[in-house]
Design goal:
25 strands, elongated, about 675 residues, 18 helices, alpha+beta, five-stranded antiparallel beta sheet, eight-stranded antiparallel beta sheet
Length: about 675
């Protein structure tokens, strides 16, 4: 017997029977629904948001037929009927992890509420019993009587099915929705509920005993999902004897986590926009639960959630999508998630209106579809969306954001979709392995398109694709001797990193810039300044000190275009897309070579791109500097005349760069990281 260690008497408070639990559960759920059943809520969603209804029903039909989309492929594939919980057809740990999160159960539960068709509910219940029999939890304690922590922290034990993260996700994301949607189906009887309670009690013990030991500093996104799982199950079933202890613990740990993980500027410490937006939901979820289950989170907690949405706004490209820094996607986990979560928590749809300046209604609805059932007032949400469609409401935030603790900055000329935008970061040492090998790297968008992009995440699988996507060679970075700034060991392991930071960030009416440095090529010090000048071009100034003999330099510009042209004589390269393009001009000592590459916008999908790699042979000077100029080009426009690119080291720490663009000479004076710019008309030079 799977749960021979426990009986209902062991896990329920004194005097409570399974009949009591079922009766009280139905009363609570009815109270939460405010006389609106899930079947009725489904009818309202179908009426107000027919696209959500259609997309969710399409997924549910595939799930009913035994198909799912899981890591390793972007296509539907057969997962078994019954599900083969231990089969891993792509030899990829994420496949097993996500299969055992049972997201397809939630989709089919929604389909039941949309249609009342019992076959969706019956399939969930059948698969539930099958999983209970097939996938018992490994022992919590080892033979020495100690907590078996590592048995819950990876794929090696039990194929990751009871990894603590999956335990947490099941408890907040899928299993509660079986109850919410199917409670009145006739299938949630005492037999089902007894099996369910015995299993979630085991889940709760893992989350309460194991996870605090895995994350003692509360400094990882996993810990949020794990504590949300513990919080949700303890709120849903106060009849469990440990529910009060578990609930208090989860609330305390979420409060501790937001202080440990969210900076004063609002960024989640991993610095990846997609994970940040995910964390916004995970931090917002206790605020949602607090309304249902009558507890409160601190004012400081709520204020930090708001700051998180502001970060999400800054990390949104003018053309839509996230900044792709680190393990971020540009088409999922976006600002739309953060904006919608804030609305769920507060009822304020201002950020939804902001998000709809950068995303289509279809994209927005696709992102929020899994959460739509949590909206108490669908008509109010629809009003926010309809108003935003009629009148663009751009964010009322500064155009420069310096995330000091994250060592990131966001620069944009304005909040319009055509704005010039730069995300620039120098995160070294890194926080964790979701970050890439890209010190002083950047991305650049303009005129509604990403021009110089970040490879983003294609896969977590430890293979050549992962290695390339994380390497400096595929980022807009400078490298020495074709060597990464630090060693790539595996998907989740890197070599030692040295110090680095952003030194200053400033703006005035004519330009905005940020300067960073790092020491990962010690003894060489690399300093880079990126400046958006006259809302016209991006200047990239690289200054190298204490260069070792015979060092070569490579400066990479990752063009988000499958075709490009390069001219070594002119030290020039340009993307060749049908939309906006970018022309890069550099120091004549640097010769461009075109290197085929890839950029991913969502898991397991990527497209062809081209890197313009500007290289110089072995340097003889111990100190040197290079200026590169990236000029964005509107569709159909040709590049301006860019000539006379020079650099002069005046003294240690002070470099003067110069360039002529059409009829204007620019002199960019960099002194200890601070920048001034002088302009002279060509006729006056």
């Amino acid at each position: 017997m799977l749960h021979a260690d426990y009986t209902l008497k062991d896990i329920l408070k004194d005097g409570i029977t399974i009949s009591d639990v079922l009766a009280q559960l139905k009363l609570r759920e009815k109270d939460f629904q405010k006389e609106v059943s899930f079947i009725q809520q489904g009818e309202r969603i179908r009426s107000l948001f027919p696209d959500i209804y259609s997309s969710r029903m399409d997924r549910a039909q595939h799930n009913l037929d035994g198909y799912a989309i899981l890591p390793g492929s972007s296509s539907w594939h057969f997962i078994g009927n019954p599900v083969k919980w231990y089969e891993n057809i792509y030899d990829y740990a994420e496949y097993s992890y996500q299969l055992n999160r049972m997201d397809h159960w939630r989709t089919m539960a929604e389909a039941y509420s949309f249609t009342g068709d019992i076959q969706y509910a019956q399939k969930i219940v059948d698969e539930f019993y099958h999983w209970i029999e097939e996938c018992p939890c490994q022992p919590l304690y080892n033979q020495q009587g100690e907590l078996a922590l590592m048995d819950f922290d990876g794929y090696e034990c039990n194929q990751g099915i009871w990894r603590s993260l999956e335990v947490g996700i099941r408890m907040y994301r899928t299993w509660p929705y079986i109850i919410h949607h199917l409670l009145d189906s006739g299938l949630i009887d005492e037999k089902f509920l007894e099996t369910y309670l015995l299993s979630i009690y085991q889940h709760g013990r893992v989350l309460y005993l194991i996870t605090p030991k895995l994350w003692p500093n509360a400094d990882h996104n996993h810990y949020l999902m794990e504590n949300n799982g513990l919080l949700y199950l303890s709120c849903m079933f106060p009849e469990l004897k440990d529910s009060d202890t578990w609930k208090a613990h989860a609330i305390h740990e979420m409060e501790r986590s937001i202080m440990a993980q969210v900076t004063d500027e609002g960024g989640q410490i991993e610095g990846c926009a997609s994970y940040h937006n995910g964390c916004t939901y995970w931090f917002a979820l206790p605020l949602l639960l607090s309304k249902k289950y009558s507890f409160s989170m601190s004012c400081a907690y709520q204020e930090r959630v708001k700051k998180m949405v502001e970060y999400s706004t800054h990390a949104t490209r003018p053309c839509g999508g996230n900044s792709a820094w680190g393990d971020s996607h540009t088409k999922s986990g976006t600002f739309s998630v953060g904006a919608f979560c804030y609305y769920l928590a507060t009822g304020d749809g201002t950020y939804i209106a902001n998000a709809l300046c950068y995303y289509s209604i279809g994209d927005f609805l696709n992102v929020i579809a899994p959460y739509i059932w949590e909206v108490p007032d669908l008509e109010d949400l629809n009003r926010w969306i309809q108003t935003a469609q009629q009148h663009h409401r751009y964010p009322e935030l500064p155009t420069v954001s310096w995330q000091k603790k994250l060592k990131q900055t966001f620069l944009r000329t304005d909040w319009s979709n055509d704005a010039l935008y730069v995300m620039f970061a120098c995160r070294t040492p890194i926080q964790n392995e979701h970050e890439h090998i890209d010190p002083a790297g950047f991305e650049f968008t303009a005129y509604g398109r990403t021009l110089l992009g970040d490879p983003s995440i294609y896969t977590y699988k430890n293979d050549e694709n992962r290695k390339k996507a994380k390497s400096a060679h595929w980022h807009n970075c400078l490298t020495l001797n074709h060597r990464n700034p630090w060693e790539y060991i595996s998907s989740w392991e890197s070599g030692k990193q040295d110090i680095g930071d952003i030194m200053c960030v400033k703006q005035n009416s004519q330009f905005m810039y940020a300067t960073a440095f790092h020491m990962n090529y010690r003894p060489t010090r690399h300093q880079r300044t990126v400046a958006v000048v006259d809302s016209r071009f991006l200047a990239v100034m690289d200054y190298l000190e204490d260069i070792e003999p015979d060092t070569s330099v490579q400066i990479n510009f990752h063009m988000d275009a499958s075709r490009a042209v390069a001219d070594s004589e002119q030290s020039f390269a340009q993307s060749l897309s049908d939309d906006a393009n970018v022309a890069v001009f550099s120091d004549k000592r640097l010769k461009p070579h075109l290197v085929p590459a890839k950029i991913s916008v969502i898991d397991y999908t990527w497209h062809d791109t081209m890197i313009a790699r500007f290289e110089t042979d072995h340097l003889s000077d111990t100190d040197t500097a290079f200026l590169s100029v990236a000029v964005p080009l509107r569709p159909g426009c040709t590049a301006p005349s860019v000539t006379d690119i020079n650099s002069h080291i005046v003294r240690p720490g002070e470099v003067h760069f110069s360039v002529r663009i059409d009829n204007t000479y620019y002199t960019l004076k960099l002194s200890d990281g601070s920048l001034t710019i002088e302009r002279t008309a060509a006729s006056q030079a």
